[in-house]
Amino acid sequence: MDTRTLGQGLQVSEQGLGCMGMSAWYGATDDHESIATIHRALELGITFLDTADVYGFGRNEELVGRAIAGRRDEVVLATKFGNRWFDDGSRTIDGSSEYVHQAIDASLRRLGVDAVDLYYQHRVDANTPIEETVGAMGELVAAGKARHIGLSEAGPDTIRRANAVHPITALQSEWSLWSRDPEENGVLETLRELGIGFVAYSPLGRGFLAGRFSTPDDLDEDDFRKNHPRMSGENLDRNQALADRVRGLAEEKGCTPAQLALAWVLSRGDDVVPIPGTKRRTFLEQNAEASDVELTDEELGELDDAFPPGAAAGDRYADMSSIGR
Q1: pLDDT bucket at 26, cuts 50 / 70 / 90
Q2: The whole model's pTM is what?
Q3: Mean pLDDT of the chain
Q4: Which one from 26, 55, 119, 201 is the annotated catalytic residue?
Q5: Rounded to an integer, what distance in angstroms lies between the CA atom of residue 186 and that of residue 87?
Q6: N or C: at which end does the chain have fewer Cβ atoms within 10 angstroms?
């Protein structure tokens, strides 16, 4: 697995591993298989692991911590804060300086490490100036608790204001053939002007573009995708046609739909790192092989024609209010 550099010096594997589904929101989980998947990722050279404190309400960080115990030096570890939850099940976004310090200490305990390599604000807090939040995150760097800091789902103005306080290493947001918003909303242009890397989550359209399910009926009852805006009613029909197009082009290329979709994200630039999520070794190994798929200019043109920005039907989330502008 080759490496890529985010920001001004964070070297990561060119593909990362999103660990969220191992503990939350994507149906049944199996800790044994999840830990085996993380270990297999390390064997394959996928050393960039992505988690967050809210995934499984802390359980995912604990799982990742168990998986990397004794192997910390092999891993580039990223986690996130900002989605604050309470005992009654309610949740809010908190970017206050006080909470930044509370959150990192709790994450480090769950992960069983002294520091994380990349610490993101998971969502921007509309009630706290970004300067306050990033100032506190910079204090974590000075204290040795985080080596780099990042943002997630932030807009151009927020990115600029944040970077003026402390260098931002990476922005994490959704980017795939069916979610091309970063190309349209000024985010990608801003990042490249400032020298900030892009970490693309859900590069397989939450598994839909990979052909791993075709209707909500294929999913577990507790899988949040079952009620996803893009996977219901007329939206599902329109988006299924897009997934069928991926499958057809992949067959022509001699690769899997997942490999084609990942190869497209990898082709966006050396400052882009996709983090496909999986909780199974089989899918991990298939995804890893996408790094060997080279798309020609003609094939890239075909994909652009088939998937222009805005092609997917429906919002990325049922509630888009927390997405930065």
Answers
A1: low
A2: 0.91
A3: 90
A4: 55
A5: 38
A6: C
